[in-house]
Design brief:
single chain; 256 residues
Length: 256
């Protein structure tokens, strides 16, 4: 992953992040629909550009992405060790570390969505495990809000996940209203902070108009609701078939 497979999505992410760091403003002079995901590459780029310029920046971002992926895999392994036997946890962590959405390890919106979703699930489990403590898992709730916010920035349509996370929190929590407000409040603070940074370079009117034009100009938002539901149903059907196949093979293996 460090030395091959330089594809379109990686080029798109790196150029988009570079533009946001150097000359262009988010939602001002940039019209890319995935520009909210540029934050991680941009943060990694800034010190490197100041020290070395653009030479070798692709390898640097790939190395940084590899380290991030390994670190999250270790966190997942440690969490799984609390749930299943260590051998199973090791096997599952190996599957995770070797499974990425694309042949890209640079922090781009696809793999960032996976990273922050993984951190979200780890924090959700930690919150459930910490409910017996006096603090009631408040730190984990704040982390849940942070990871949820970064998940949405990485892939904005993931905002559809937020109500379900909130429902799980309300379901398992002993202090339902407080914990729900803490999660929602953290998400709100993160969202307001991000928009505030954007509005330092453009006006509110420009932001609203440009956001509308970006969404309207994206071909993925021009399909009808029925077409989207059909596509989603087909994808869910494929996933269900795959899961059924895995369960069937597992059951046969167990019986043998």
């Amino acid at each position: 992953m460090l030395f091959f497979a330089y594809g379109l999505d990686e080029e798109y992410q790196i150029v988009m992040s570079y533009r946001s760091v150097t000359m262009d403003s988010l939602f001002g002079t940039m019209w890319e629909p995935h520009q909210s995901s540029a934050f991680l590459c941009a943060l990694l780029m800034k010190p490197y550009l100041a020290l070395f310029g653009t030479s070798g920046i692709v390898l640097y971002l790939r190395a940084a992405g590899t380290l991030i992926h390994l670190r999250i895999s270790i966190l997942l392994y440690r969490t799984l060790c609390k749930i299943v036997q260590r051998e199973y946890a090791w096997f599952l962590a190996l599957i995770y570390v070797n499974t990425i959405p694309k042949q890209i390890i640079t922090p781009e919106f696809g793999i960032m969505q996976v990273w922050f979703f993984t951190l979200l699930m780890i924090s959700l489990w930690n919150f459930a495990a910490a409910l017996k403590q006096p603090s009631g898992g408040a730190v984990h709730l704040i982390l849940l809000g942070l990871w949820m916010s970064l998940e949405v920035l990485s892939y904005p349509s993931c905002i559809l996940l937020a109500p379900f996370v909130l429902l799980v929190i309300l379901w398992i929590s002993h202090r339902k209203i407080w914990d729900g407000l803490l999660f929602v409040g953290t998400c709100a603070v993160c969202g307001i902070s991000y928009v505030t940074l954007i509005l330092q370079k453009i006006t509110v009117t420009e932001f609203v108009n440009n956001l509308s034009n970006i969404v309207g100009g994206d071909v993925t938002h021009q399909s009808t609701l029925l077409t989207k539901l059909q596509s989603a149903g087909l994808s869910l059907g494929k996933i269900a078939l795959l899961l059924a196949l895995i369960c069937g093979i597992s059951m046969v293996s167990y019986l043998i």
